[in-house]
Amino acid sequence: MQRTVEKIFFALLRFEMKGEELCKDIQNLITPEVLPALFKLSKRHDLAHLIGDALDNNGLLPDESETQKHFLQERNMAVFRYEQIQYEFEQICNTLERAKIPFIPLKGSVIRKYYPEPWMRTSCDIDVLIDKSNLEQIKEILIQELEYQYKEVESSHDISLFAPSGVHLELHHSLVEEGRAQKSSDILYTIWENVVETRSYNRVMTDEMFYFYHIAHMAKHFEIGGCGVRPFLDIYFLQRQGRYQSSTCIELLQNGGLLTFAKAVEETAAVWFGDVEETQIVKNIQDYILYAGMYADIENRVAVQHVRRGGRFRYLWSRIFLPYKELKLQYPNLEKRKILLPFYQIKRWCRLLFGKDSQNVSREIKANVNMPKDKKERIAKLLKDLDL
């Protein structure tokens, strides 16, 4: 049934995104028995609102059923989330404009304008880039003027603030994260040199830089277990604009070591949402992505680290004794007190074993012990084929 669900899933996305009519064969496959698995898959990728809308528009949701209820709730929630996030985004933009502080909107706030309707491109938060020198000033302004709350989280490149409505703002002061490949990092450090000057303080990335950042962000998530289907939808709509295939864009991807990966994910988007025939690399990407979801899967993450670290024992050792450069991200006080490294290692162990992450730790240990050899080999080959 798995392949049937996948076939229906992509057919419904093509209907929703480009108006491609559902053929009778697909409609006949959509039975009450298939719908729960279809909901589970689409929910995993935060696309249940699109699948539900497509089913509803084709009259394929059983009336008064639990499945109809779940799908339509997801659609209604997506519209609500969009309105809520859009309101907060406009508030943030207006506040930074008044303060005369340059900023760059990122991700969904830019891409959603290319979708048939903006609510279709969901986001779990708002992402904005500012210069690090303005970070504390902006933080205080948002707290004082918009009543945002600051929450300290482990990150080397952004801080988290929450609106009274609960909307999450990731205020980035850099696009470079610990562990990112050096080539892509070198390019992302030049972000402020690659913006289009505007009359306002709302800066816009050049097309080439925006596309490079999108591919680099995908690659980062891909390397830690998966990135979900939604970024491929983004690629499909960006490619349709015709502005992201210039020689300059290709050169930037080449210099950043991401051209092979970019070509593969572009091909995958063309197969999933266009009419291009499937190739082996697309099949391998689909098998890797579909059941990992938006934020990867523990088994995928562990398998990738087995490949990177050289086996389960080296991986386990690296997870028990976290390197200083990674541990200081979780505990910023360690930055200038390296002598306290053993104390913070123990503190981390206690948090993992007895805190809210204990269930994830248990799942990770099981995945590490039971990792199939053939899965590691498939992922190792895929990463090599993608030049990651």
Compile the SSE list and pairings.
Elements: H1 2-18, H2 24-29, H3 35-44, H4 48-57, H5 66-98, E1 104-105, H6 108-111, E2 126-129, H7 135-145, E3 149-151, E4 158-162, E5 168-172, H8 182-188, E6 195-196, E7 204-205, H9 207-223, H10 230-240, H11 247-255, H12 259-273, H13 280-289, H14 298-309, H15 312-320, H16 324-330, H17 341-354, H18 358-369, H19 373-385
Helix pairs in contact: 1-3, 1-4, 3-4, 4-5, 9-11, 10-12, 12-13, 13-19, 14-15, 14-18, 14-19
Provide an overview of this structure:
- With 388 residues, this protein is mainly alpha-helical.
- Helix content is 59%, strand content 6%.
- It has 19 helices and seven strands.
- The strands form two sheets. The protein has a five-stranded mixed beta sheet with strand order 1-2-5-4-3. A two-stranded antiparallel sheet has the order 6-7.
> What percent of residues are in strands?
5-15%
Shape: globular
- Rg from Cα: 22 Å
- For the residues shown, what is the average pLDDT? 88
SS class: mainly alpha
Number of strand elements: 7
Please, how many helices? Answer: 19
Helix and strand pattern: HHHHHEHEHEEEHEEHHHHHHHHHHH
Helix content: 55-70%
